[in-house]
């Protein structure tokens, strides 16, 4: 069997149904092998970055490993942004890259790049396969590494001569890794400590992150059960949205820089914090020395390097969320501890006061002269699609934060966004990947006009496969988050943040044979969304919204949770410190 | 997070798969995350040459040291990470070669001091010696300090190699 055939056979044996790729000289043997079989389907993209984001969308929405195939040199370098994105957000991917023949490596050959060198810091692991006899083992090990422990992207660099070489193929069962064995079960002593701490809490909070989603739907159910059983308040990170149902009354919304007032103040004021699959990211903590100063912290994470990285915790528990929360639930049921109902009553009273501030409030006039508020457009999208089990992807910026605030999720794996890296241009290709994984589902990319332009070429992929993706552009003609920071921090000097030279999105859609719809007035919003939902094929919606709207609440860079800005009338009173200005 | 006052020096032994790129992974991790490397040595240590041992000296706050170990353990080809400073008594040794160029009384004094330190003369020319000295980094430092006062010196140092004392034996090594 040739090396190229082995690669495709290994993919099939690993249960891979679809790969996202773009051909080129160094991967022609692989494409030949793809041509000759029917078990693995190939989606032709328009740019390699798009391929990686598609694989991310596919992986995050299906729970499977996403697979990418690109050529050497520029093919590999174009994939780097996507790989970094997947590393930051812990998305399991395999990226197969072509490489020049082994005897040319290091000679500055045509379309040569040091792919393993370039991708070393942006992958969980990478391989350069120089001998066809190593190929089967590397392929299967790569899937194990990508999907186990804290998931991440793995690159396999395949020189062209290795793709041609003949060798013997081994199945997945014959390969095991010697020493990469992540710890999944929590230390029982720590579990007992955690249960006692949780049970004795007077002002507790669950801080739930994207690791729960990665741990799978069963793990999310266990987390929801823990939240329900204790009756304690819970907040989710941007990446953790959907872990627990948003309809749960204990859910305080998202926390962090643009999180809710109640979530951030509860984090600041709590006495016991239970962090589950979350990594105390700077968007979440705000100023680190003022972060939740009076709490005991329990941290459950599968990655030991996430623990005590930014914030020192009292009870670290290394393990898989599903396993560890299961252990906590069992221990809790055994001990049947008595919780401090009186103190909790006071805590909830306090939280209800914070909730009553209604921090996401906005004012939408309904006159024909009123502009559409972006929050209103997203809120209406939610109301009109909430019964359809929709998958939502986003780009990066204001619209992303509004989507996180106003679109509510009942289940995990339905929300795909670039959290860690903040990659503009993520949402459109990610939506393609989600749609490929769920052909009959409603998939909406809530986008900004700026981000949409970053991977706009993937409209070609949507058109080619007639994928019914809905691209819902919140168009304010500004790079809104940049404009917002310039307004608040740089004296309203709007350097290069205006989206000049935009296409007519309706005509753009039509030129690809898609439908384009536009709303410019509040009373058109519902009609346009309904029309969008009735159309079977792909649609671009140009939601022309108010240009000056800012995203609140906001914890400015370098501020603490309790220094949160509420917007509307609150913003003049706030001044920005010099320290905060240098932070991003 | 960095508090200058509680910076600690730690000696680590890292056992890795002996495969291409593994050193780049370790070094890239240190530079990418802004950790210090004060010295680093690497050589294969298993009979079948499948395992290499990296000895490195680093410094940081206790939180950073903990991070360094956790981040190293995350790398797929890394088998074991041992913080010798934490784990207990260990022996640290370093090899240095010093070429000193001088004449007259200074030349005789250099030879005398070398004798006190038990450094070996491994090369002699009319106007220079090359001394070889092994020992703890502290001993080496004091020897170099003296030599610098006695002529022009050129120095080569191996960096620290270290091993736990007593019976405890690293698996695979």
Describe the structure.
- The complex is a heterodimer of chains A (584) and B (173).
- Chain A is α/β, with parallel strands linked by helices.
- Chain A contains 24 helices and 18 strands.
- The longest helix of chain A is centred in the N-terminal third of the chain and has 15 residues, at 48-62.
- The radius of gyration of chain A is 24 Å and the shape is globular.
- The relative contact order of chain A is 0.11.
- The mean pLDDT of chain A is 95.
- With 173 residues, chain B is an alpha+beta fold.
- Chain B is built from 5 helices and 9 strands, in the order E-H-E-E-H-E-H-E-H-E-E-H-E-E.
- Chain B has helices at 22-33, 62-74, 84-87, 104-116, 137-148; strands spanning 8-17, 39-44, 51-60, 78-83, 90-101, 120-125, 128-135, 152-157, 161-164.
- In chain B, strands 5, 6, 7, 8 and 9 form a 5-stranded antiparallel sheet that branches. A 4-stranded antiparallel sheet of chain B has the order 2-3-1-4.
- The chains are: A alpha/beta (584), B alpha+beta (173).
- The A-B interface holds A 116-117, 120-121, 124-125, 128, 145, 177-180, 288, 303-305, 307-310, 312 and B 1, 20-21, 24-25, 28, 32, 63, 66-67, 70-71, 73-76, 79.
């Amino acid at each position: 069997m040739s090396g190229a055939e082995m690669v495709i056979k290994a993919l099939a044996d690993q249960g891979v149904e679809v790969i996202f790729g773009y051909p080129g000289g160094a991967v022609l043997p692989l494409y030949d092998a793809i041509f000759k079989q029917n078990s693995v389907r190939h989606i032709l993209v328009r740019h390699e970055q798009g391929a990686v984001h598609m694989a991310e969308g596919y992986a995050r929405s299906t729970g499977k490993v996403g697979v990418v195939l690109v050529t050497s040199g520029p093919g590999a370098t174009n994939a780097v942004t996507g790989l970094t994105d997947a590393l930051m957000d812990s998305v399991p991917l395999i990226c197969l890259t072509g490489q020049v023949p082994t005897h040319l490596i290091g000679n500055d050959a045509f379309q040569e790049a040091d792919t393993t060198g370039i991708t070393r810091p942006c992958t969980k692991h990478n391989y350069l396969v120089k001998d066809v006899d190593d190929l089967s083992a590397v392929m299967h090990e790569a899937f194990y590494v990508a999907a186990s422990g804290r998931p991440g992207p793995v690159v396999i660099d395949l020189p062209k001569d290795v793709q041609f070489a003949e060798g013997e193929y081994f199945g997945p069962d014959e390969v095991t890794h010697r020493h990469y064995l992540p710890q999944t079960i929590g230390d029982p002593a720590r579990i007992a400590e955690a249960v006692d701490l949780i049970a004795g809490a007077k002002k507790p909070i669950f801080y739930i992150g994207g690791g729960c989603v990665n741990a799978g739907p069963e793990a999310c159910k266990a987390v929801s059960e823990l939240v329900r059983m204790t009756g304690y308040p819970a907040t989710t990170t941007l990446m953790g949205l959907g872990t627990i149902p948003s309809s749960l009354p204990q859910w305080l919304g998202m926390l962090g820089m643009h999180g809710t007032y109640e979530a951030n103040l509860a984090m600041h004021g709590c006495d016991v914090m239970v962090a589950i699959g979350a990594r105390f990211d700077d968007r979440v903590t705000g100023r680190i020395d003022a972060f939740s100063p009076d709490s005991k912290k329990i941290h459950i994470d599968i990655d030991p390097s996430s623990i005590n990285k930014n914030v020192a915790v009292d009870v670290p528990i290394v393990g898989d969320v599903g396993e560890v929360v299961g252990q906590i639930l069992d221990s809790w049921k055994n001990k049947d501890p008595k919780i401090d109902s009186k103190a909790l009553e006071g805590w909830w009273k306090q939280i209800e006061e914070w909730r009553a501030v209604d921090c996401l409030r906005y004012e939408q006039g309904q006159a024909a002269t009123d502009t559409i508020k972006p929050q209103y457009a997203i809120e209406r999208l939610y109301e009109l699609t909430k019964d359809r089990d929709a998958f939502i992807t986003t780009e990066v910026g204001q619209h992303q934060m509004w989507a996180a605030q106003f679109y509510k999720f009942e289940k995990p794996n339905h929300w795909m966004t670039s959290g860690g890296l903040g990659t503009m241009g993520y949402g459109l290709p990610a939506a393609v990947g989600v749609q490929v994984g769920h052909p009959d589902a409603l998939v909406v990319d809530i986008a900004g006009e700026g981000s949409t332009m970053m991977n706009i070429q993937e409209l070609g992929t949507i058109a080619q496969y007639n994928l019914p993706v809905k691209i819902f552009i919140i168009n304010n003609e500004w790079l809104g988050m940049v404009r917002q920071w310039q307004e608040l921090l740089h004296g309203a000097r709007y350097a290069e943040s205006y989206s000049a030279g935009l296409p007519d999105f309706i005509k753009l859609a039509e030129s690809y044979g898609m439908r384009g719809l536009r709303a410019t007035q509040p009373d058109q919003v519902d009609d346009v969304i309904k029309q969008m939902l009735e159309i079977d094929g792909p649609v671009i919606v140009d939601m022309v919204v108010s240009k000056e709207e800012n995203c609140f609440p906001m914890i400015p860079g370098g501020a603490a949770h309790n220094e949160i800005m509420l917007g509307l009338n609150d913003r003049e009173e706030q001044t920005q410190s010099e320290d905060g200005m240098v932070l991003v | 997070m960095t508090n200058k006052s509680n910076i600690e020096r730690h000696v680590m032994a890292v056992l890795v798969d002996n495969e291409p790129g593994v050193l780049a992974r370790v070094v890239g991790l240190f530079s990418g995350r802004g950790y210090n490397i004060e010295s680093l040595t690497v050589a294969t240590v298993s009979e079948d040459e499948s395992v290499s041992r990296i000895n490195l000296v680093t410094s940081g706050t206790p939180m950073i040291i903990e991070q360094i170990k956790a981040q190293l353990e995350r790398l797929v080809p890394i088998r074991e990470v041992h913080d010798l400073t934490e784990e207990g008594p260990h022996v640290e040794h370093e090899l240095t070669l010093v070429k000193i160029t001088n004449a007259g009384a200074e030349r005789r004094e250099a030879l005398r001091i070398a004798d006190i330190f038990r450094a070996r003369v491994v090369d002699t020319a009319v106007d220079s010696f090359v001394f070889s000295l092994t020992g703890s980094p502290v001993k080496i430092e004091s020897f170099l300090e003296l030599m610098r006062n006695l002529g022009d010196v050129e120095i080569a140092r191996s960096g620290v190699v270290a091993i736990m004392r007593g019976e405890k034996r690293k698996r695979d090594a």
